[in-house]
Amino acid sequence: MKTKTIFRKFKDNGDIIALFPEIPSDYEGRYCDSYVHVGGHGGANYQLVIGDTVLATPEEYAELKRELETHYDYEIEVYRRRTPQMRDTFRKQVEDWRKTTT
């Protein structure tokens, strides 16, 4: 299954972040899963990251994409922005997660 991914570049330091807009990282639905080269996987506030970053070019995110596909067996599907369908999938994932933790 392909993982929908949005690659962004931080304005302040140029680091690249991979956002996984369909994968929640907390059962309250505040954060989506993300990945950065130094630090690995973690939760990210999608809106805050979007405000602090610009869209990364394929050349800029190539190394991070390769790392995810090689070391973590991701099958990346790159998107420029989160779609309404991605939001719906995220909300459904949160609902399902809550059911299993209560």
Query: What order do the helices and strands follow?
Result: EEEEHEHEH
Distance between the termini: 28 Å
Q: Compute the gyration radius: what is it?
A: 13 Å
Low-confidence stretches at least 5 residues in length (pLDDT < 50)? none
Total strand count, please? 6
Residue share in helix: 25-40%
Separate helix tally: 3
Mean pLDDT: 96
Q: How many structural domains does the protein architecture include?
A: 1
Q: What characteristic shape results from the CA principal axes? A: globular
Main sheet, how many strands, which sense, barrel? 6 strands, mixed
What fraction of residues sit in β-strands? 25-35%
Q: Which structural class matches the secondary elements? A: alpha+beta
Give a structural overview:
With 102 residues, this protein is an alpha+beta fold. It has one domain (3-92). It is 38% helix and 33% strand. Strands 1, 2, 3, 4, 5 and 6 form a six-stranded mixed β-sheet that branches. The longest helix has 18 residues, at 84-101. The radius of gyration is 13 Å and the shape is globular. 23% of the residues are buried.
